[in-house]
Design goal:
212 residues, alpha+beta, seven-stranded mixed sheet, two-stranded antiparallel sheet, 26% strand, oxidoreductase, Thioredoxin peroxidase, AhpC/TSA, cytoplasm
């Protein structure tokens, strides 16, 4: 599994469904450069079980992300037609109707490969034919990308393990606090709490005040 933290996020252009109903060809994260932080997350498959809980949970908190100047973008190896159908299926019928942030179609699996979250790989069988080993879907990867297009945080879960939207927001807060104040954020730091200078004296001061 590649570590992309500190590196430019892989670029891509693909079709996405935006606002739950519009096809946008050549969708790219580059549109956010210099403007917004991005939470770019992968999920395995449309019309499944854990995936809608995550997608709808992001939608439930979309105002919190937008207030922080963060764009949320989802991606799976399904087609844009599949995304569209799922987005227009009522939630009580297993759909995700009401989701407004973009869902990118990665049917060619190149985006998942470049972010190194594809749950499998291509190989050759004994007859020399190209086969796919594993599951041709994306792991539950999440990447926090800054305004310069650099990955600052990543987490990758196995297929059965849903993610925490609260933790995604906490990492946004930590990154933005560091960018604004220049102070580093200790374990379990949350917005509104004291951070510390990345010096021996700063650590000592933080530890001394932690119990107060």
């Amino acid at each position: 599994m590649a570590v992309l933290v500190g590196k430019k996020a892989p670029s891509f252009k693909a079709t996405a469904v935006v606002n739950g109903e519009e096809f946008e060809e050549n969708f790219s994260l580059e549109q956010y450069l210099g403007k917004k932080h991005v939470v770019f997350f992968f999920y395995p498959m449309d019309f499944t079980f854990v995936c809608p809980t995550e997608i709808l949970a992001f939608q439930d908190r979309i105002a919190d992300f937008e207030r922080k100047g963060v764009a949320v973008v989802g991606c799976s190896t399904d087609t844009h037609v599949s995304h569209f159908a799922w987005l227009n299926t009522p939630q009580e019928q297993g759909g995700i109707q009401g989701v407004t942030y973009p869902l990118v179609a990665d049917a060619a699996k190149t985006i998942s490969q470049n972010f190194d979250v594809l749950a499998g790989y291509y190989d050759y069988n004994e007859e020399g034919e190209v086969t796919f080993v594993g599951e041709p879907v994306a792991y539950r990867g999440l990447f926090l990308i800054d305004k310069e297009g650099v990955v600052r945080h990543q987490v990758v879960n196995d297929l059965p393990l849903g993610r925490s939207i609260d933790e995604a927001l906490r990492m946004v807060d930590a990154l933005q606090y560091f960018e604004e104040k220049g102070e580093v954020c200790p374990a379990n730091w949350e917005e509104g709490e004291e951070a510390m200078q990345a010096t021996k004296e700063g650590v000592s001061a933080y530890l001394a005040n932690r119990g107060n």
